[in-house]
């Protein structure tokens, strides 16, 4: 048994740990600022009227996707996770896109003799 008086934290400088925490905090504040900007942009896009509903939905989904990536990647620490998490996330995304595609593909496949009504009316 050793009678050394070296503490368990020797070699782990407190300054290095403090710097590491500070750099992580800086990243979190930058991501928070980006999310705040994305939220302001989302609200601003509400007041911009595009000719096509598809363009409006595409822009809204693009902004939401960026914000979701920031939350999942940084706050949920998915950017540093292992390949298994990415595999599960990729499979989930593939199934999501496939189900949305099937839904859009079958939108006009109603029973015969029925009349489909538009979900929204465009103003001319």
Would you give an account of this structure?
The chain contains three helices and no strands. By secondary structure, it is an all-alpha fold. Helix 1 (about 15-45) runs antiparallel to helix 2 (about 55-75). The chain is flat and about 70 Å long. The chain starts with 13 loop residues before the first helix and ends in a 19-residue tail after the last helix.
Compact summary:
This protein is mostly helical. The protein has helices spanning 14-46, 53-75, 83-105.
Distance between the termini: 88 Å
Secondary structural class: mainly alpha
Number of strands: 0
Parts with pLDDT < 50 across at least 5 consecutive residues: none
What does the main sheet amount to? none
Q: How many domain modules?
A: 2
Mean pLDDT: 81
Individual helix count? 3
Order of helices and strands: HHH
Write down the Rg.
Answer: 25 Å
General form: flat
Helix share, percent: 55-70%
- Beta-strand fraction estimate: under 5%
């Amino acid at each position: 048994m050793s009678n050394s008086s070296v503490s368990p934290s020797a070699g782990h400088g407190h300054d290095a740990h403090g710097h590491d925490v500070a750099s992580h905090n800086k990243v979190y504040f930058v991501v928070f600022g980006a999310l705040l900007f994305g939220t302001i942009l989302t609200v601003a896009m509400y007041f911009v009227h595009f000719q096509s509903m598809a363009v409006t939905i595409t822009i809204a989904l693009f902004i939401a996707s960026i914000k979701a990536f920031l939350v999942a990647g940084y706050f949920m620490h998915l950017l540093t996770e292992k390949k298994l998490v990415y595999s599960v996330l990729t499979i989930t995304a593939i199934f999501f896109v496939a189900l949305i595609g099937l839904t859009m593909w079958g939108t006009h496949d109603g029973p015969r003799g029925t009349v489909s009504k538009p979900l929204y009316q465009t103003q001319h």
